[in-house]
Amino acid sequence: MLQVIHDAFAHRRHVDPPPAALSDTVEDIEQALREGHGVCAVVDTEIVACVLVDIHGPVATLRRVSVVPGAAGGGLARALAEAAGDLAATLGARRVELLTRREFPELLAWWERHGFDVVREDADGFILGRDLPVILEVPTAEAMQALGGRLAGVLRAGDVLVVDGELGAGKTTLAKGLGAGLGIAGPVISPTFVISRVHRSLTDGPHLVHVDAYRLGDAAELSDIDLDASLEESVTYIEWGQGKAEWLAEDRLEVEIWRSTDPAADGRTVRLTGIGRRWAGALETMREQP
Predict the structure, then answer these.
(1) Domain of 164?
(2) End of a domain among 131, 165, 184?
(3) Which residues belong to any copy of the N-acetyltransferase domain (predicted)?
């Protein structure tokens, strides 16, 4: 880990004073791991990226976010930050923060693109933060629908949900519970062949726009549906939206669903990640496992 940290920070342009990371020793890293946690990315038995994670109460702090120069630009930094956030969330943290120096505005912009906001200024730069994802174990299809009903309780008109998960993971099942919770008309079924279906509210709540982007090649094809015309008055739920629908809203809820790794089990893991100021604190009621 120490070599990865030194290589990554040495590759950045010179600043004065130099980063403290360049002065780290093996003993420093060992102590950080004894008192906290570390996450590494390994390729062909070699560590190519790493981060230190300190947890104090509800707040996790990321330090020494490092990717070796030869592996930079391939999405490792994002994957590393997400893995560290998931670890912190499972250990009970609710927010994550990190420091970025003011001499590196491009790093500030990168973290902001990935859902972080400036929390406060520090003598060395800016403290950025965001809520950690909500990670829930969902044992059955009925529990997935119930989760959708709970989620409906925190949604409002204008919200965009970008939903991802393999075939049969439970995306449409979650949407059914969401529709029931919103009080919409008609059954919720996958709009695979019609791409988009609007379910009108039977109450004074928002409508539900249910989209299946599986057959769409990219964001440009999704834009042809003119979803932005109904955004303000609806909750927009986009299955298979990852990599295609993020442009619709800077503030959005990203939902990821995984099958259990146990082939004999029918359970799912659901991760809810709020992006943008709209979601600051909005998912706190969802953190308790029912």
Answers:
(1) 134-286
(2) 131
(3) 1-139
